[in-house]
Amino acid sequence: MRVWLLLLPLLLAACGGGTPRGPVLGAAALQEPVTCVPYARARSGIDLRGDAWLWWDAAAGAYERGHSPRRGSVLVLTRSGRMRDGHLAVVSRVVSSREIRVDHANWASGSLKGRIMRDQPVLDVSPRNDWSLVKVWYPPVGDYGATSYPAAGFVHGSSVMAAR
């Protein structure tokens, strides 16, 4: 009985899990390794298909799109250089007009390839502050690195029909 009295607070604390940071939906069921597309779909609830770079055009007429980040929106990075499929990241919070934090999968290489990364910094480095060019935190080096990535914009979770 005494052991249960000691364990009960720990068990209850583990159930709390902290404050939720947006819709998890099917993301909790995903197993690593996972790519950015199924992770972004499950995390955001935005039901689009195809490679990451295709999401911007695929969202037209179905989901609201824009060039300002919102919590829960999906940042769409276009194809460029070594990133032939583009990349998707879900906005976990807006820090400032030039910085957001994202949750995404499969951003790093080596032993981190296919891993889910949470609350990772992204900087807007575009000349007009329109999020068309970004730097993304790279965990293996603990910094942003030298590469800037072109971004199409943000796909917002609200559908076009719901926005009308």
Give an overview of the whole structure:
The protein is α+β, with helices and mostly antiparallel strands and 164 residues long. 20% of the residues lie in helices and 30% in strands. The chain contains 4 helices and 7 strands. It has a 6-stranded antiparallel barrel with strand order 2-3-4-5-6-7. It is globular and about 40 Å long. The N and C termini lie far apart (59 Å).
Point out poorly predicted stretches. 1-24
State the secondary-structure class. alpha+beta
Report the β-strand fraction as a percent range: 25-35%
Shape: globular
What value does the average pLDDT take? 84
How far the N terminus sits from the C terminus, by CA atoms, comes to 59 Å
Q: What's the number of helices?
A: 4
Order of helices and strands: HHHEEEEEEEH
Structure in a nutshell:
It contains 4 helices and 7 strands. It has helices at 2-16, 36-44, 55-59, 160-163, and strands at residues 63-66, 74-77, 87-96, 99-105, 116-124, 133-136, 149-159.
Topology record:
Elements: H1 2-16, H2 36-44, H3 55-59, E1 63-66, E2 74-77, E3 87-96, E4 99-105, E5 116-124, E6 133-136, E7 149-159, H4 160-163
Antiparallel strand pairs: 1-7, 2-3, 2-7, 3-4, 4-5, 5-6, 6-7
